[in-house]
Amino acid sequence: MSAAAPTSPPPSAPAGTFLYFSELLGREIVDSEGVRVGRMADLSIRLGEPYPVVQQVFIRPTGQKEIFLIASGQQVRDWNRDPIHLSARLSELRPGRR
Q1: Of 21, 48, 61, 76, which one is least surrounded by beta carbons within 10 A?
Q2: Among residues 90, 96, 97, which one has the least CA distance to residue 75?
Q3: Which 3 state secondary structure label does DSSP give 57?
Q4: Distance CA 57, CA 71 (A)
Q5: CB neighbours of 47 closer than 8 A, spacing ≥ 6?
């Protein structure tokens, strides 16, 4: 499975950036202040585009088995960096279950 960058990508990720899901899975994610949030666990995508567009990013915080933090695809500042950088602070992410 693969995913495309968000509809309105940041300057560091050109529109239509093609990434493989396997390249993102398990990658560390940090918030806008550089605080470690957790690791990428899953994505929610929108079909109907030439390539799937990421709608939500499911982040597994360290030590959690059932709880995820959820960021919108548009809150990802840079898909290509390792760790993945968000444009949102940790407090702006919403908790959820999958």
Answers
A1: 48
A2: 90
A3: strand
A4: 5
A5: none
Question: Residue for token digits 């908790």?
Answer: 95
Beta strands at 2-4 and 67-72: parallel, antiparallel or unpaired: unpaired
pLDDT in tens, 10-41: 444 445 667 889 999 999 999 999 999 999 99
DSSP letters spanning 18-31: EEEHHHHTT-EEE-
Which pTM value belongs to this model? 0.79
**Which of the 8 DSSP states describes residue 6?**
P
pLDDT, one tens digit per residue, over 51-94 is 788 999 999 998 888 899 999 999 999 998 999 999 999 999 99
Task: Read off the tokens for 84.
Answer: 């993945």
Return the CA Rg of the chain.
Answer: 12
CA distance 69 to 89: 12
